[in-house]
Amino acid sequence: MSKYKNLMALTRQHGSPSTDAIFLGWQSTRSGDVFALYNITAKGHPLLGSTVTGKTLRKLNLQAPGAPPPGRPVKEL
What we know:
By secondary structure, this protein is an alpha+beta fold.
């Protein structure tokens, strides 16, 4: 089983039922800002397994989990 599939299985077992994605980490921009990346875990969603930004999750009406503070400016993508 791939590392990605292990992560998805762990999320389904231990993820919060009120979220539709898991937080993957912070991506840096050239300007030094960062934005959050998430993997969609909503069962049956056409984008299941896709990596998206928080803005995309909101556009898709999916619930995002909390993310730890990055320690620098956050850019909204």
